[in-house]
Specification:
heterodimer; A: alpha/beta; four-stranded antiparallel β-sheet; 11 helices; B: alpha/beta
Chain lengths: 326, 331
């Protein structure tokens, strides 16, 4: 099957003021997402996941690489023009904090109608209104709430508005940037069920970003782990969480608190400071210095992603021999 | 984790009720909240937002805003009722015996003073040190909370540090005078898991070294499961259940506790295992039934509408406020 999204060698550098240096926020990242799939993206703050999301949703222009969406390279359309291109309706986003991402002066109705009026095919007030009502029903938002403003809605209701807005134009790819991190666990479960249900009903593809690894595990088919602008491991969610191959993934997973006192694991404590994302050496592993298993070669050679199992890849020198054996 | 005795609690909150006067009427933020914290013990307070976790902490610290009124109750700490103590008496305790870590370190730290100056301020005020000695002690404290290169960071402003670093500075401020009780209000919310683990390790070590008791306020059940000896579950301004950690997770007796656990993602769980909690947090401005969970509860009985809300002592350490608690076997 041709992938819905195929990202090759994607990079984004932010130049620093008054110098020749640049922050390498995303560096040579390649991955693809099949139609109907849900891929989870995890990593600590500063690892480049937000930048990657902005590149994929075309809110930012990449420095290098290509983003093929349904077979067309959309990376060449400037971000400023992308907002009014027909592609915009195919890739949509649900933001982290609904209180920040909803216009406080727009009613729920207007928020959901906005993309329809700008890019939609529904013409005329009646058609827009019918579509907004349909979307509200889809997202479990009571129609009598449509006249309300964000501050008159609960967190869960606000996020339903955000989701309704995102799916208004029937996108193929929905990027979910921490869609539940501002919500209580009780509401989080409802929103996750809603998202899972919508994905099935509307055959959408998800890129799901979260720092809650337990959540990513149960919501995603595949998981991508980023560290300092690089993808260090990618594979089926069950495999990555059951048997993580990259030392960073192992350390990250070991730090996740488990809501079950019986299941206590041994923590891998990372010492040392993280490398700087400013002009990183292309021949040093980004995790070197913090890696509990690092050795001399990590300082002179950047490990590439290697297959370590079925659809499972990791970037670590220690996996080289295993990869050859396979 | 040991199970220290609670016979002579360090802090004993008894029947605490707090109200807020607002334009929309009186908000009964806390009602009849009781719990105790023993010496060296780590107690977690969990619940959804609006359950009264932070109001409880602010009451104990005497930091309630002017619109709040303590309607009833006591908070006894070292023989003194913190709720009726004068400002001067409180000043003797706060920062010295009793200290707090706030939720957002960036807003809690003074943005226009270096972190070193802020530490020195605390040491001069509460530890009666001279400025010269305080400086050396401040650098020591920064090293203790594992801030790399503490001598240089002494002169750093909060904006120059990462969120995790700022949180460590907050901890350094809070433990500067070796308090007997530390209240940590969502100390790791919005912080990466690896940094979160390091910060919680640090709090755990400090507790173990100096027998410091900690109240850990969080909405993250994973954090309390790993870090606390005992857990207090709050809902709508009530304490609904209190139990030792292992027991609470193995045999939650209050329907709300069970729902809270079931709505938290566990490793290996499927999405279908994740159960939402029906309804929403009660509106505390309205007239409320004796049990504030009643409208959301699937085990509610007609007698739930009759006051008072019972407080069942299941074992000396396991309390539940429910007319119809879950049976042990069912879980």
């Amino acid at each position: 099957m041709t992938p819905l999204l195929d990202v090759r060698g994607l990079g984004k550098r932010f130049p620093l003021r008054h110098s020749q240096s640049a922050v390498h926020a995303v560096d040579d990242v390649s991955f693809s997402i099949a139609p109907g799939e849900c891929v989870g993206l995890v990593g600590e703050s500063g690892c480049g996941k937000s930048t990657l999301v902005r590149l994929v949703t075309r809110l930012l222009d990449p420095t290098t690489g290509s983003i093929c969406f349904e077979g067309t390279d959309i990376s060449r359309v400037p971000a400023a023009r992308f907002a009014s291109s027909p592609w915009r309706s195919r890739i949509q986003m649900v933001f982290q904090d609904p209180t920040d991402s909803l216009n406080p002066r727009a009613s729920a109705f207007d928020t959901i109608a906005e993309p329809l009026r700008r890019l939609g095919t529904a013409n005329g007030r009646r058609a827009v209104s019918a579509r907004v009502h349909e979307l509200a029903d889809l997202c479990g938002l009571a129609r009598e709430l449509l006249g309300r403003f964000p501050h008159q809605l609960s967190g869960g209701q606000q996020q339903r508005v955000g989701i309704a807005r995102a799916i208004a134009l029937s996108p193929r790819l929905l990027v979910l940037d921490e869609p539940t991190s501002a919500l209580d666990v009780s509401v989080q479960a409802v929103i996750l069920h809603l998202l899972a249900d919508l994905r099935e009903r509307l055959t959408m593809t998800y890129l799901f970003v979260s720092h809650d690894l337990n959540l990513v595990r149960l919501f995603s088919d595949r998981v991508m782990v980023m560290y300092l602008g690089k993808v260090v491991e990618i594979g089926p969610a069950d495999r990555v969480f059951e048997a993580p191959r990259h030392p960073y993934t192992r350390a990250l997973l070991s730090a996740v608190p488990t809501p079950d006192p019986v299941l206590r694991r041994r923590r891998i404590v990372l010492t040392g400071e993280a490398r700087s994302p400013v002009d990183p050496s292309p021949s040093v592993c980004r995790f070197s210095g913090r890696c509990p298993e690092g050795f001399e070669r990590c300082e002179r050679d950047m490990p590439p992603l290697r297959p370590v199992g079925d659809k499972h890849e990791a970037a670590c020198h220690l996996l080289e021999t295993q990869a050859v054996l396979r | 984790m040991s199970e220290p005795a609670v016979e002579i609690p360090l802090l004993s909150v008894e029947d605490l009720s707090v109200e807020f006067r607002t334009r929309d009427g009186v908000v009964k933020a806390l009602e009849g909240v009781s719990f105790a914290v023993g010496k060296g013990e780590t107690v977690g307070i969990v619940g959804e937002s609006g359950s009264g976790k932070s109001v409880t902490a602010f009451s104990v610290m005497g930091l309630l805003p002017p619109a709040a009124r303590v309607a009833r109750g006591r908070a006894v700490f070292g023989g003194l009722d913190l709720l009726s103590a004068s400002g001067r008496q409180l000043d003797e305790y706060r920062g010295r015996e009793l200290s707090m870590i706030f939720q957002n370190p960036r807003t809690a730290l003074n943005p226009i003073r270096t972190i070193g100056q802020q530490l020195v301020d605390v040491l001069v005020r509460h530890a009666n040190l001279f400025r010269v000695d305080a400086r050396a002690r401040a650098v020591e404290l920064l090293a203790r909370v594992q801030i790399p290169d503490p001598g240089r960071r002494f002169g750093a402003y909060p904006f120059e540090l990462s969120g995790g670093m700022c949180q460590r500075v907050m901890i350094a401020l809070a433990i500067a005078c070796a308090p007997a009780l530390l209240i940590a209000d969502e100390p790791t919310t919005g912080i990466d898991v690896t940094t979160q683990a390091a910060i919680l390790d640090l709090l755990g070590e400090l507790g173990a070294q100096s027998r410091m008791a900690t109240i850990l306020i969080t909405h993250d059940l994973g954090v309390v499961a790993e870090r606390c000896d005992r857990i207090v579950v709050m809902h709508g301004g009530h304490v609904v259940e209190t139990a030792p950690t292992d027991e609470l997770f193995a045999h939650p007796r209050h329907p709300y506790t069970a729902r809270l656990i079931a709505s938290t993602p566990r490793p290996g769980a499927k999405l279908t295992d994740l159960l939402p909690i029906p309804g929403s947090v009660p509106d505390l401005r309205q007239a409320l039934p004796p049990c504030r969970y009643r409208p959301r509860c699937e085990r509610a009985l007609p007698r739930c509408d009759e006051p008072p809300l019972p407080r069942l002592v299941l074992t000396p350490r396991h309390l539940v406020a429910c007319q119809n608690p879950l049976p042990v076997e069912a879980v």
